[in-house]
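About this split. The held-out portion is used to measure sequence recovery: a designer receives only the structure tokens and must propose an amino acid at every position. Recovery is the fraction of positions where the proposal matches the reference. Here is one held-out target exactly as it appears in the evaluation file.
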């Protein structure tokens, strides 16, 4: 089964608040992961990188601010949008959160409707295709309504797997994806597929992208994986 739902990690140590947030996000069409403290959050992020993180400031073991600091100092995770939730309403607390790298800061108590809007706002930056927008990279365009791919003025004919691979690359063009991450992203964790299958489909994607003489936009990072150039 292919996985196109945007993924949100909710990090909250209060069980009732965690479930309310998760319920509303799932009702809004998001795929939700849950963590009850900062250490668990970091473990989940290593296993499955989310598209957005909604995280409480004050938590046991490891605070949301410290998790934010660690994620934003790591090149592999610094682009993940982070929304900090906090009962601290003073301006200096907001400034501290934003200076550490949080992309948004929401004061408790908050409106769930407003928080959903803020999550979608962050997704428009990190994963626009999931919200029905076209995405572009140089002369490549993916149309989110027709699922067409064009390069320059030429329509490309991609299979469903090649389409999803290209979409994944274009949503985060600077990121290097390992074969294992692409398997999880495209095929899902519950399906067994050999890692070399990724190479086969990357080869097919490259062939179609270069069909009319265009340069190959996919970069192979030896020993790591693939990204756009």
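Reference sequence for scoring:
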């Amino acid at each position: 089964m292919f996985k196109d739902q945007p993924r949100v990690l909710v990090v909250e140590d209060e069980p009732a608040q965690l479930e309310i947030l998760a319920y509303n996000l799932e009702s809004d069409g998001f795929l939700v992961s849950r963590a009850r403290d900062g250490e668990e959050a970091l473990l989940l992020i290593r296993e499955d990188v989310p598209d957005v993180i909604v995280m409480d400031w004050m938590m046991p073991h490891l605070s949301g601010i410290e998790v934010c600091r660690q994620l934003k100092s790591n090149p592999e995770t610094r682009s993940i949008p982070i929304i900090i939730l906090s009962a601290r309403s003073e301006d200096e607390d907001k400034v501290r959160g934003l200076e550490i790298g949080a992309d948004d800061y929401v004061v408790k108590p908050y409106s769930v409707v407003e928080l959903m809007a803020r999550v979608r706002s962050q997704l428009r930056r990190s994963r626009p295709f999931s919200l029905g927008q076209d995405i572009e990279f140089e002369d490549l365009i993916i149309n989110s309504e027709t699922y067409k791919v064009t390069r320059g003025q030429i329509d490309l004919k991609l299979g469903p797997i090649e389409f999803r691979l290209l979409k994944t690359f274009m949503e985060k063009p600077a990121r290097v994806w390992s074969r294992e991450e692409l398997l999880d992203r495209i095929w899902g964790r519950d399906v067994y597929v050999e890692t070399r299958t990724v190479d086969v489909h990357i080869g097919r994607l490259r062939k179609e992208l270069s069909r009319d003489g265009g340069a190959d936009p996919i970069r192979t990072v030896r020993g790591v994986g693939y990204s756009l150039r």
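Annotator remark: The longest strand covers residues 7-11.
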